[in-house]
Amino acid sequence: MKESPGVVDLLGVLAYAELSAYARMTEDAVTLAPSLGDRAALSELAVTEYAHFRLLRDRLADLGADPDEAMSPFVEALDAWHTLTRPSDWLQALVKTYVGDGIALDFYREAARHLDPSIAELVDEVLVDEGRSQFAVERVRAGIEAEPAAAARLALWARRLVGEALSQGQQVASVRPELARLLVESGPADISRLFATLQEAHGKRMAAMGL
Amino acid sequence: MKESPGVVDLLGVLAYAELSAYARMTEDAVTLAPSLGDRAALSELAVTEYAHFRLLRDRLADLGADPDEAMSPFVEALDAWHTLTRPSDWLQALVKTYVGDGIALDFYREAARHLDPSIAELVDEVLVDEGRSQFAVERVRAGIEAEPAAAARLALWARRLVGEALSQGQQVASVRPELARLLVESGPADISRLFATLQEAHGKRMAAMGL
């Protein structure tokens, strides 16, 4: 089957992003959730990530790619991202779920824009926000209301998440040029538009949380 | 709604058993799986446990019980079970999934025998073996074939799992007499039958793995 050269890379990085997000959110739910109800609520989001992983893995197999091989180039950078951004409390975990994963997902969505519609549709499907935002936003807002001093601390945390995301993203782009090319197919104008889009989406998320 | 007094306890312990098994299997998959394929395979089983948790939680809510309250009495014993039986390699993790969870599930199934059919059906549904056995059995057998010395070590590990399961089970029974009563409703003859059933099922699992 004829596909853009970056397609397997894109589905591979996305598949491992979902597989690792599922595991980290599950761990955060166990170690940081203040109640069994909150633990279940974050676990619910984690399991949705796993379902997305399954779709991506199956599509990779349909394309004739080995899913494990497609994911391997991205294991190190994504694991590093999670290690460098391990939340130390429940609100940090929620901000990470919303802001950190949010910016990553914006990248993936941009990368899929120029691809075959069936791939773009799949990417849209796995990136759909199934209540994740509402869940995180509501609880972070309530947390800040209960403890206003938390806002500054969480804003700093969000900035760190973005910094680490960009840094790991850059590393991925440098080793997988085909993938990077998906993001900037039409040259410099596209780069400006990309950064404007990402910045706008990030700003909206911060505002929604009251940060 | 009129229910046997142990029903909420049974669904509560089972719900937390599934919620915690999901989290621990997810963690074992990340830390111990030898390949991304194995990691995904164990994660698949973990996510199935989560789906079962969801069914149990919803049934508790339908019965008018607070799912968090129903689960809380069992958090300590089940967390202790997981802490005391943390696998240190991939084969131990698989044996735990199969043998450890297996014996716990036998207990739950026995406890549900005398209950309202709709509860017994739900318990059967969440305890169904969806490929868990085949997955663990195949890989443990292959592991022993590759390294015959592993068999004795894993047999010892399985014995420890059973010992810890019985010990935690006893603790649960002592604090939740209603739940214990579900297991031995008809007196001593029932106890003998129960232990014979559990022993037989455990023996079959050990034999299946070649232990």
UniProtKB/TrEMBL annotation, chains A, B:
Residues 6-185 form the Ferritin-like domain. This is Ferritin-like fold-containing protein. It comes from Nonomuraea purpurea. InterPro entries: Ferritin-like (IPR012347), Ferritin-like_SF (IPR009078), Ferritin_actino (IPR059125).
